[in-house]
Amino acid sequence: MKSTIYLILLFPLFLFSQNEIKGLVMEQNSKNQRIPLPGANVFWLNTTVGTMTSDDGSFKLPYDAAYKKLVISYIGFRTDTLLIETPKSIFHVLKASDDLGEVTISARRKSTATSYLSSQNISTISSTELLKAACCNLSESFETNPSIDVNFTDAISGTKQIKMLGLTSPYILITTENIPSIRGASQAYGLSFIPGTWVESIQITKGAGSVVNGFESIAGQINAELVKPTTDNRVFVNAYGSLNGRTELNTHFNTQVSDKWSTGLYLHANNRSQKFDRNNDSFLDMPLTKQINIMNRWQYTNLQKGLISFLNVRYLKDEKQAGQLSFDPKSDRLSNSVWGSEINTRRFEVSGKFGYVNPDIPYRSLGLQIAYSDHEQASYFGLNEYDIRHKSVYSNLVYNSIISDSRHKVKTGLNATYDRYNELVNSQVYDRNERSVGGFFEYSFDNLDALNLTAGIRVDHHNLLGTFLTPRVHARYTPWEKSAFRVSFGRGKRSANIFTENQKLFATSRQINVQSSGGAIYGLDPEIAWNYGVSFLQGFNLFGRKADLTLDFYRTDFENQVVVDYENPYEVNFYNLQGSSYANSFQAEFSLNLMTYLNFKTAYKFYDVKTQYDSGKLKKPLTSQHRYFANLSYESYSEKGEGVWKFDATFNWLGKQRFSSTEISPQAYQLPTYSPSISTLNLQVTKVFSEAFEIYLGAENITNVTQKSPILSSENPFGSNFDTTFVYGPIFGSTFYTGLRFKLN
User: For labelling, which of 76, 454, 531, 667 has a CA lying 20 to 30 Å from the CA of 339?
Assistant: First the structure.
């Protein structure tokens, strides 16, 4: 039974690809329990093709008929050599060496790792890394990752937005277990609707994504893998409280119903009921919030028949109140006496993943993904009213096989999407139905000694966008040991949901203008862009310690774009691009294991993002051209895992950012061309008392950096100069928090 449970861990690896050798490496502890063995070496005998097991003990390697013997080794354990004649799933338990006596040698896997073998530029954030920021939702999960930029969208909602390659989240395909989830009506606030404790790992793919996951990806893909009922703790509790009035509670309950069925119930609740106005502008620095989030997850596994499935049911209720301190929604709603805002969201969703792997021909597999969601938001911002309801149905069928041998792999399939939008913008109604059907084909050549190539194309028919092609190509070459040189290019296309993606505009006095070009959605044509990228990764030893250096450059060229123009302080204009728009992104990242259990990583980023506006070609507003990031983490060691201390510090520096023009405003409401540069420092300390219990204490923005006067014309919120969108830095100042984690296996 124990073996069967751990074999279930293989599902994320082979649901859509069984063209490689994949498996689990385990060890047997003193209680005769089999537990994952991370950091074990797995390689083909007499080749340079190898890898290390991940945190859950899993691995994957390319298979070739010429490869016969698989070697599995780890310090302190016997080295085993397995005879492999066909591609299959491996479950192997390493035995401890008898001749090592009482000597204990241990190793740590990096909490964030970039693949050397994949053709795509993929970084994986493990659950260990997610805990460093005590993240409470997905938008807060990237504070210690240099590839993702996180900042507040406005000075009212308290919502954080993410950027990648200099572009905002609508240009990033955000998925949950490879099912598109943060899109349409959920684009503005959806990242805050996925609790951090539900996330097992996050995969970040820079550049054009895979054709398998749709045509909308332009800047990249972020995929969140959720915890599994069979591998998550039987009981898990996370309690969190901060001095800014925020409290949270997360509980997980998992149980094995039968030998094939397991289920988990996941509960999340957060609340902020205290009012704060530290900058004395009469507005709440952070909104009052209430959220209830419930998910029931079922997992079915029948390895004998090659079947494995997941079924999720989720309900969300989220309520936000913002505005002036004296605002009372019972009496002041949509009145011009006191400025206030409420954003109330209800969401229900059902999703399923069903996989079949031919037990006799394991490199052939079939997977089906289906999802339904009903998202409803009722909101107002001062005198501006915005309501949206979005019903969505998504399905994706994927077939995997090989051509001649496992070096030549193919994926093909069909997917269909239906979206029903009902929007109310003040008194204007916008209703539409979107339907798309698409097919895709992807070929991969895996000769990981030197070259890895993935080329795909998909064709889609959309009832409002027409029929179109989106090709994507990724290639990786290894010129020498511990290196990876990558190139990629691809095309993306998307329909811009101009109101729900830019809800911050409602918290202004600006007039909304949509300049129609005759397109099918809001009178606008769809956005089309090409992304090109090159990346180099090199691992090496520096002063006898492990280190790696990553350099990458990406460029996004828009063929067409829906321009969001704030250059007139009394208007926001939407129109299709006339001219050029591009985003150049360069990043240099360096990481070093300074000493045992002490790790350092740093990164520098340069952005050149420009768009042709009606007033001329300008830098994108509120986008820093220069950014610097540094993280230092330390974890003490205990043989029994008790009394361990964990320390983490993250420093961020942002260079000046351009403000959209305020030249025609009265002098009292004119802003300089650029914001000042800012820097923030976050700290966290965790004390692990046992495998079951730990507490943590942390501080965000410990140096208390704040933006002065983040709200323009806060003294007259119903006047023509009121604007809450000029946010370049922290609003609240320092935030101190504490919490505890309790778990039972």
Answer: 667
Query: For residue 53, how far is the Cα from the chain centroid?
Result: 23
By C-alpha distance, which of 670, 531, 680 is closest to 164? 531
How many CB atoms neighbour CB 85 within 10 A? 8
Count of CA atoms in the C-beta half-sphere (13 A) of 404: 6
Task: Return the structure tokens found at 559.
Answer: 């063929």
Distance CA 578, CA 583 (A): 16
DSSP character for 96?
Answer: B
3-state secondary structure of 129: helix
Is a pLDDT exceeding 70 seen at residue 11?
Answer: no
Neighbours of 259 (CB within 10 A): 11
User: Does the pLDDT value for residue 16 go beyond 80?
Assistant: no
- Give the alpha-carbon dihedral of 558, 564, 566, 567, to 10 degrees: 40
Contact 499, 386 (CB under 8 A): yes
Among 162, 225, 219, 220, CA closest to 190: 162
- Looking at residue 7, its pLDDT comes to 41
CATH of the domain at 170: 2.40.170.20
Rounded Cα gap, residues 557 and 624, in angstroms: 19
Full-model pTM? 0.85
Residue 629 has pLDDT above 70, yes or no: yes
Torsion sign across C-alpha atoms 506, 508, 509, 512: negative
Domain shared by 96 and 168, yes or no: no
Highest mean pLDDT among 34-43, 446-455, 466-475: 466-475
Q: How long is the chain?
A: 745
Q: Which of 76, 107, 138 is the last residue of a domain?
A: 107
Yes or no: say if 510 and 570 are a contact pair by the CB < 8 Å rule.
yes
How many domains does the chain divide into?
Answer: 2
| Per-residue pLDDT reduced to its tens digit, 539-548 | 999 988 999 9
Q: What is the DSSP string of 605-630?
A: EEEEEEEEETTEEEEPTT--SEEEEE
The answer to whether the CB of 31 falls within 8 A of the CB of 381 is no
Q: Are 309 and 282 in contact (CB under 8 A)?
A: no
Q: Are residues 568 and 512 in the same domain?
A: yes
**129's tokens:** 């890394």
**533 and 618, same domain (yes or no):** yes
491 and 377 in a common domain: yes
Question: Which range marks the domain in which residue 95 is found?
Answer: 2-107
Residue 204 to residues 147, 179, 417, 724, 727: CA-CA distances in angstroms? 8, 15, 24, 31, 26
Q: Are strands 405-425 and 483-494 parallel, antiparallel or unpaired?
A: unpaired
CB 349 within 8 A of CB 311: no
CA dist., res. 471 & res. 490, Å (int): 6
Q: Residue 639 CA to chain centroid, in angstroms?
A: 33
Angstrom distance (rounded) from CA 723 to CA 711:
6
